[in-house]
Amino acid sequence: MKLESLEIKGLKLIKSKIYRDNRGFLREVYKDKLSNDRFLFDVMSYSKKNVLRGLHIQTQKLQAKIITVTHGKILDVVVDLRKNSKTFGKYFSIVISQKSEFSFYIPKGFAHGFLCLSKECTVNYRCSQYRHKKSETTLKWDDKDVGIKWPIKKPILSTKDKNGKSLSYFK
Fold first, then answer.
1. Pick the catalytic residue: 91, 105, 112, 125?
2. The CATH number of the domain where 130 resides is what?
C-alpha cells in the first residue's frame, strides 16, 4: 500500500497492492498505517445514474473516511470545513471507478459527497466514527461560494440534500 498526498492537506489516495491471476484479482484496500484514526464502521450505498449524495458532515463526532467504489463510477467531492485550515471552503474532486486501483482517504473535517456517473454504482465508506444522527448536516451541493464544477445541472437529490446549508453556516 502506498499513500499519495493530494493538493489539499490531509487528503490521500491509497494505492493498493493488487494480486492478479487467471481467476481475477485480490486488492488490499486498507492496512492500519494510514492515520491515528481507527476505522470502526463500514457503510455501503447503491445509487443510480445522476444521483448526488451529499455534501455530508457530522459537526460532532467527526469522521475520517476511506472511500472505495466496488461497482460503477463516481465523481467524488470533498469540501474542507476545518475552521483553522488555510484551504477552508476549497473543494477537491476525483473520478473513482471499480477499475481504480486506489481508495480515497478523507480526514476529519471535510464535507463529502458524490455523483453517480455510471448506470449504477456501489460505494463503500469505511468510517472512523459511528453515525451521529443529531449532528449530521449537509453543505449545499451547488453553493456559489464553493463553486464545485458538477457535470450536470439537475442531479437527483434527497430532500435533506436539497436543503443543504451555505458555506457561511460552517464558518
1. 125
2. 2.60.120.10
Q: Is there a catalytic annotation at residue 105?
A: no
Q: Is residue 19 situated within a structural domain?
A: no
pLDDT tens, position by position, 26-64: 877 776 666 677 888 899 999 999 999 999 999 999 999
Q: Report the alpha-carbon distance of residue 76 to residue 54 in Å, rounded.
A: 10
Return the sign of the alpha-carbon dihedral for residues 136, 142, 148, 151: positive
Residue 129 cell numbers, joined: 466514527
User: Domain limits at 132?
Assistant: 37-96+104-170
Cell of 115: 455523483
Residue 56 a catalytic site member:
yes
